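pasting for the record
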Amino acid sequence: MTPSHRLLLIAITVGLISAHARAGSPVFVGAKSSSRVSIDKIDHSAWDQLLRKYVDDNGLVNYAALKANKADVAVFDRYLGHLSSASAGVPAARNAQLAFWINAYNAVTIKGILRVYPTSSIRNHTARLFGYNIWHDLQLYVGGTPYSLDQMEHKILRKMNEPRIHFAIVCASIGCPRLLNRAYTADEVVNQLELNSKDFFSRAQNFRYDAQGRRFYLSSILDWFDEDFGDSQADQLRRIAKWLPTDAAAAAAKAGNLKVSFLDYNWNLNRQ
């Protein structure tokens, strides 16, 4: 084999691997519905009932009990089908869209964990090259179009310029924000986002402040999505100041001469 042929074979092999990694093996949830209603019309009460029943105040989920209850699994599946009846292309109020996509993201994540439960971490199901990747391959039909978790987060929610979504959408891990045990609704979403943002920074796994050393220890979420909170570290600290405990809030608001470190992320499953 000539060198040029060898290089061509390598290029083809790499291309096939890359294509496979991108394509994955889609798993669809919801329904490929012909209905196209406004997101304003979607009712999240079924999701609310499931959250109240299976999620505690710390956002931990009783996956075993939910999976064992076939009637509630059917309720869950009908709710996902109801989400599918919406259309992203039909005009809807911004708060309704926020609530819809946060609920959709969280519900699809929990459904994805139920599919593989028992498991110890979502990272067991995020293959980088070959095989199933829950963030790419698990897809919810909305208005006939499938949306992956990555698409919901990066193509829809982050583009709404609402950084508090990072304290509301969950990756089924201890290190992520608590799963609020209520559904987000258009009427309450602003207050709910504020509540969960304050809760997020009240937990030592997400935030610590060393006053003497003037050092902030922040969740890795603030590292991964720093641009959503401002163009500079000072801007980012000022942005989160109002959600911080009192002693740290004043320091963050001034944002002067502060050091920042990022905490290790806990990928263990958020199970009861």
